[in-house]
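Team,

Forwarding the record for the chain on the shared tracking sheet. I've put the sequence and predicted structure together so nobody has to dig through attachments.
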Amino acid sequence: MKKLPLGVETFQEIIENNCVYADKTRFIHEIANSPGKAFFLARPRRFGKSLLLSSFEALFSGRKELFDGLWIGDNAKAQGNSNNTYNLEESFPIIHLNFAMLNSKSPQNLEGGFTHIIQSIARSHDLNISAPSISLLFYDLIRNLKRKYQKNVVLLIDEYDAPISYNIDDLELAIKNLQVLKEFYSALKPLIKDLRFVFLTGVTSYALLWHTGVLNHLIDLTMRERFSTICGFTHEEMDYCFSDYYPFALDNLNIINTNGPNDIVAETRPNILERQKILDMYDGYSWDGTTRVLNPYSLLNYFDNNNIFKTYWAEQESSSKFLTAFVLSNPFHFAKDTLSKLPSESIKITDTNSMAPATILFQTGYMTVDKIVKGEMEVPEYYLRIPNEEIRLKFKSDFTDFIFETLNIKPEDEIQIFREAILSENAETISDLITANFSKLPAQHHQPTESRYHGLLFFYFLGLPNVEVLCEPAGSQGTPDLVVKFNDGLYVIIELKYRQAEKETDSLSEDKIKDITKRLAEKGLKAIEDINYATPYIVDAKKILKMGLGIYGRGRSQALLKNGKRPANPKEAKRPRE
């Protein structure tokens, strides 16, 4: 029974300690044996990028014994010295850097960190180097290593983007760090003739580094179909690696290993419901829209923790203020399983000043590719979705907890007040309740957009017990802003209308504000009536209430209610307009 490699960070440790390992050496062989020299791969944190780089380090160190029994080792034995194999005994001088270890809280600290690391590597090879800039210092290190060993140098950089990504909620600092990185990476291109192999990994793909020519010589493997499973566990790898850890018997699961762990055939799938629970919770990540992998960090923790389902990866990936602001501003991204199409250029971050929420969430692992469709001129368009139940639970817990902690109210008390107001059709109480809650929010959570208040309201309802909330649910008649479904068959259809205050210091009279919010609420209620938003629910609902909600400025609100009586015969429902 192989050990679970939790806390084990290197390929060497995994192999020498007989730990679970999904054999990815076929990919390693293809990349190392290809005509290309320099490669890049983006994946979320804790997704196996460091292990991949460690595997390349073992390969280029000539550690042949570590690959015995793996695909690349078996291939070397079978192919001999043919062009289809890699020489596992040849070694090269290696520079292995991890930028997550650098102090990036100022560009000066970042430059100092680069200088310290480069000089430390030089001393470990008995080299003494100095230069007036980090790019020249890096240049001298590579040239001196090549001169000393008479071999080209292997360069491995983990978390190449960390100085930017770790400070993304401080854009001014992130941009300054970006300039430092550009200087450091500028040494790479003229040195390509002195490098045997280059591989960079990171979470985000900053197109700016490519478009400015700094890294445009790298082959980006991130969205390449044949490398879509280079990190993470496929379903077959999960069955092969963890069958001893499964919380259910696998007596009838016939796993055939025909040619090493990469050629796995699972003939039957008994206990499919139990196995499906694991897939529902941790599976679903895709970079080609077809093949899907499980989150390796969560899967390992699940088996190590006696098969207890928890949000292991999501708990480690704490949501920043930056991410919270994105979600609250764009609730419909997270209320549905899928997102609208993104053009291929949107997959990379083109500008640190204007980052699209969907792009950020895809690159950080909160969204994944659902499907890829060829658009005009055969250019791919990406459709994204929440990958699995772990991330769905993360959204719900993080952002609903955030709302209720900020408001300092208890969801169980709030639902009772709200429900009584709904049943008595007391629009004034509902207006006061929503206005009071909005007024408790700190100033930074008020933005003069309808989507911001839409988002706040969505997560408010999402956190109430015994309530299901649908955000812009699709329907042939159109999409209302919110549909709140109580567990006893009461449906509330909500259409929100917002008007921004003309000035931040706008001091209208109370009567004037009431007049504005009333007209906005009337507009929302009219939209529900005119477009027949309630029609899809008249069969299932025991009672329907239509709510127009007008919001002005920083959350001053007014609700108007109308009873949407259910017809005795659904066929009597008003037909939608053509």
